[in-house]
Amino acid sequence: MTRDIKKAFQEATDFVDIIKQPVGEVSLDDRKAIATETVENFRDYINKGFLEYRKSVTEAGSFAVTEWTGQGSILVDALEREYIDILGGFGLYSYGIRHPKIVEAVKAQLDRSPQYSQEMLDPLRAKLARVIAHLTPGDIQYGFFANSGTEAVEGAMKLAKFYTGKKGFISMLKGFHGKTLGSLSLMGKNDYRAPLLPLLEGVRHVPFGDADAVEQELKNALAVGDDIAGVVAEPIQGEAGAIVPPDDYWPRLREICDKYGVLLIADEVQTGFGRTGEIFGVDHWDVTPDIMCFGKALGGGVVPMSGFFSTPKIWEVMEPNPFMHTTTTGGNPLACASALAALTVMHEEDLPRQAKEKGEYVKKRLNEMADTYPGIFDTISGRGLLIGMQFVSDEIGYAVASGLFARGVITAGTLTNAKCIRFEPALNIPYELLDEALNKMEDVIKTLPKN
Question: What fold characterizes domain 101-348?
Fold first, then answer.
């Protein structure tokens, strides 16, 4: 690549001019050129490997499906092809795409102040922390805001080590907590870990849903002199395929952690803020963790936002030197405005209730398909609108996902279970769109070869 400063500035200027144009006023020829160039830019400047995995390229015909705009649960590409979104940005779009109340709040804050000075006290961050303290169970009260779920998990791990003075963690097989080195150490799948070993020392993995295995591992650690700072788990495993644990699992984790003096850390990055039919995943079992991690939907699907929260007792270790954990952009005013507006939408539209009722509806329809077309589905799991469709083979899973894409429905597999496709739309998706997506799924299943 030859350095060309003049060309760099000219290309940036040209694209900013396109961004400034109303969506409908960019010519079709310009949009076709953008679609073509986007593929080239991914190939030459991002990662050419993405092009082999994106159905937007492999299944799209002459022009790759290039994201252009969207609203609610409909995505529109640069060539004005429409897609029903039942992927929900991997849980990002709990409120739908570009929810007007959230966008309005962010635009208003943008006119006031987009970032903070780092020296003055910022009122939005303080107010958001107070609101979340009211929402969370038990005596969870203090928090720190960041930009991504993996940052929230990293912060929770630091806090647990700092408070307990211990180094080890127990996490779950098939669990997903992010891909920075600390959170990756907790991950329960070989593919993403093995090339980067050794990772953080002292992490042990046990089967998800098996509280006896957690207790046995704590006994083992105690017997050999290893110290465990915390037990980390998702309330419902998302990337593993929306796996719901036994009903006694989280209450028993709470008892076991109290018994052995370790912290219980709930990764609510994907399950939080209404996704599973309750405000938080742990609310299904009325359990209060010691630390909670948030992300994805927290930012309203408009500005990236995450955080980790804990109790006053645990947070005391952060007070003598509040600079033990910092970020320049985490909890910025735009993100906080987006999160505050998102929480008002969650309340006004009663999104947890919508998720519960619509999730039951979707699972009923999927189970009916499983009965009608045997040999396709293995299991259908999840709660609320965090639903995993487990197929009997990788090939069937891919055929369903690609068949849906060809029919204008966007979904995807999970990162730790190749046979599983997620059904994770906006919590306020209309029933009409749910029916359309489900009908198209049945159309795809009808075309699959019978075993």
Answer: Aspartate Aminotransferase; domain 2 (3.40.640)
